[in-house]
Amino acid sequence: MKPRFRKLLSVAVLAAALAGCAVGPDYSRPAVDMPETWRVDYPQAAELSNLRWWEAFQDPVLDGLIETALRENHDLRIAAARVEQYLGQLSTTRSQFFPQLGYGLDFSHNKMSERSISAPPAGSALWYKQYQGSISADWQIDLFGRVRRQSEAAQARVYASEEGRRGTLLTVVASVASGYVSLRALDRKLEIARATATNYEGSLKIFQARYKGGVVSQVEVAQVESQYQQAVAAIPSLERQVAAQENLISVLLGRAPGPIPRGRTIETLVLPQVPPGLPSSLIERRPDVLAAEQNLVAANANIGAARALYFPTLSLTGMIGSVSTALSSFMTGPAGVAMAAASLSGPIFTFGNIEGQVRAAEGGEQEALAKYQQTILVALRETNDALTGAKKAGEIYEAQARRVAVLRDYARLARLRFENGAASYLEVYSAENDLFNAELTAVDSGADRILELVAIYKALGGGWVAEADRLTKPAVPPADAAVPAAPAAAPAAPTEVATAEAPPS
Questions:
Q1: Which CATH number fits domain 36-98+145-313+359-482: 3.30.2420.10, 3.40.50.140, 1.20.1600.10, 3.40.50.1820?
Q2: I need a surface site. Which of 11, 63, 223, 504 has the fewest CB within 10 A?
């Protein structure tokens, strides 16, 4: 081995050994003040936070809608594409760890002047062709960890985008479940309105006949007709809401607006139980919290990448090739070229350029930290709101159910009193109107009770997200399989939640 190449190799080995260091702060998870209990002491149930909670409704139609949404929803496809983008950026960043190889092929048709001092190539006329081929290599040694920190940041952004995709998945599942519950509630309200209108129509015909017979007054007929028209007017409004809800669910399914199949009625849907657990153990599994932490990891790594600009960079360059006037021998001679070089460069005066980048990176880290802390607070608020809402929605539903039962008896007794001549129809009118409105309100309160339980699962996150993820189309490959491994240890992956066992079939 030639002495100059031995020296160059020694420089490369030494540089690679020094490349293990990286300037800038190493990431450590910031301390967060987590409450030990929720504000509402909700009864603890079976461990359901890691299962497909929507299956607890025991509605195969709902299960099918959610599975379709997980395969076809366009928001999920957008989120998956975003992960692919960040994987590409990670691959680009990590490529800087390795030598960049290239080649060059040149052809020229040259003319030598007859009075030229130098003679043309041997055997060549004044006009001659020249072929040149070369292979080159360029390697920038990461002496102070700039590329390593950039790789850490890129890896963290991949993790953050993946958690963003999982957050979208969480939202899609909750939206389909909520939309379906709302649709079945509207179906029930429409059923009540149509049945009430039919009942009032029968009463109107009876009263019109009695009026012709002189039994009742025109005022009473007008009261009954007003009652009937009120019920009829409610039907188109509810039909419009049903169509709008079907359209909403259709878009979530990745389809054009259209009809949605039905399964269980709103009354027969089985309520999922509330998952147990402390705030700290459940909130940390939320995709938005995990994504916010990975953004903080990336911002922290950016500080090191910026500080590394203060230090010199070492580049190694090499090239080997040949030159010939014949195409058949241009890779073998007659003339060869070779080059090996090393260069060391660094800043002296940048007039605040590097300082500004460091300051910007430090500001970005403080912003990411505040967003991480804010995300946790929002997660706690949403979960407490959902737990409180579920408890109070159950109490409201029970009260509304009792009110409907009382008003149904009152309407029956008022009509008996009217038939026996003990009361005017005004009493019947008032009682039946109150019952109609109470029945509609009771349906809403029943739906709210279910929707609040859905909100709990959405707010808590949980291992069920991984279960739902298995129902999607094949996800993007893991980061380690998509990009070449770095020469040294890559940044640590985010804290993973233990994978839940699949629910029993």
A1: 1.20.1600.10
A2: 504
Annotated domain spans of the chain: 36-98+145-313+359-482
Minimal CA–CA distance to 452: which of 401, 380, 378, 389? 389
Q: What angle do CA 173, 177, 178 make, to 5 degrees?
A: 115
What's the sign of the alpha-carbon dihedral 212, 214, 215, 221? positive
C-alpha–C-alpha distance, residues 339 and 117, integer Å = 27
Q: What does the pLDDT read at residue 476?
A: 44
Helix (H, G, I), strand (E, B) or coil at 16: helix
Quick one: what percent of the chain has pLDDT higher than 90?
Answer: 35
Contact 269, 397 (CB under 8 A): no
Query: What tens digit of pLDDT does each residue of 112-121 get?
Result: 655 555 555 5
The closest of 182, 179, 190 to 238, measured between CA atoms, is: 190
Per DSSP, the three-state class of 152 is helix
**How far apart are alpha carbons 236 and 494 in whole angstroms?**
52
Contact between 49 and 282 (Cβ < 8 Å) = yes
Full-model pTM = 0.79
Let me know the angle formed at the C-alpha of 333 by 331 and 339, rounded to the nearest 5 degrees: 80
Write down the pLDDT at residue 46: 41
**CA 39, 45, 51, 57: dihedral to nearest 10 degrees?**
-100
Cβ atoms of 463 and 497 closer than 8 Å: yes
Answer whether residue 406 shows pLDDT above 90. yes
Do 438 and 196 touch, CB atoms closer than 8 A? no
Residue from 433, 425, 431, 427 nearest 217 by CA: 425
| Cα–Cα distance, 131 to 139 (Å, whole number) | 27
Q: Which two tokens stand for residue 60?
A: 């195969």
> In this predicted structure, what is the pLDDT of residue 488?
42
CA distance 219 to 211: 10
Is the model more confident about 389 or about 466?
A: 389
| Rg of the chain (C-alpha set) | 37
Nearest to 386 by CA among 447, 445, 448, 453: 453
